[in-house]
Amino acid sequence: MATKQSKIFLDSEGDNYYERNKGLLFNEDDLIFKEIIKLNNKKKINNLLEIGCGDGFRLNLIYDKLKINCFGIDPSRKAVKNSYNSKIKVSRGTADKLNFSSKKFDVVIFGFCLYLVDIEDLIKVVYETDRVLKKNSYIIIYDFYSKKSKILPYKHNNKIKVHKNDFSNMFLWSPKFKLIKKKIFEMNKNQKKQKTKNNWVPVSISIIKKI
């Protein structure tokens, strides 16, 4: 029986992912941050959760600029240990089991992590996200995009598969959720390489409301 990807990330790959990406800094041009500002202007956000938050740099930006209570989970021990701000509550975990009380959050963010979740765990992710969200709350999904489900090898670990999909559909089958916004565009997958056609990949950002 294959080892679950969530366990691989908790055991080692989460730390490896963090080491590869820890130089990534978020500023006020960050797409998710801009969406948080818009949502907060409509209705004050009290509690926010980012899944796959790394060391909490984006959460630190949100807290610093908007004074929102920020929480984060990440599978990496190193990321949690190096979290930026003691006022931001970052803990180890994965999206299929959220150790938070029900109806706690106004916003849940998935920022480039769903493509690495075990496919069989996606139902658990939907359930747990729904459970921790209040009514009239929001989900932000920023991830690789594919109109049809695609399973691809993960170049950093041959025990892991990448899943590309339209992840908004995980929630939109239910009448409890409504799509507010979706933008599909192309992103350069490696800024250090020449920006050739092969380096651009489709991504999307979706805003979903729990009604």
Model description:
The chain is α/β, with parallel strands linked by helices and 211 residues long. It has one domain: Rossmann fold (3-Layer(aba) Sandwich), CATH 3.40.50.150. The chain contains six helices and nine strands. Strands 3-2-1-4-5-9-8 form a seven-stranded mixed sheet. Strands 6-7 form a two-stranded antiparallel ribbon. Strand 2, helix 4 and strand 3 form a beta-alpha-beta unit. Helix 2 packs parallel to helix 3. The longest helix is centred in the N-terminal third of the chain and has 17 residues. The radius of gyration is 16 Å and the shape is globular.
Summarize the main sheet: 7 strands, mixed
* Strand ordering within the main sheet: 3-2-1-4-5-9-8
Domain module count: 1
Structural class: alpha/beta
CATH C-level class: Alpha Beta
- Beginning-to-end CA distance, first to last residue: 39 Å
CATH architecture assignment: 3-Layer(aba) Sandwich
The CATH superfamily turns out to be: Vaccinia Virus protein VP39
Overall pLDDT: 93
Give the overall shape.
globular
**Series of H and E elements:** HHEHEHEEHEEEHEE
Could you tell me the radius of gyration in angstroms? 16 Å
Number of helices: 6
Query: What are the segments in which pLDDT stays under 50 over at least 5 consecutive residues?
Result: 191-196
CATH topology: Rossmann fold
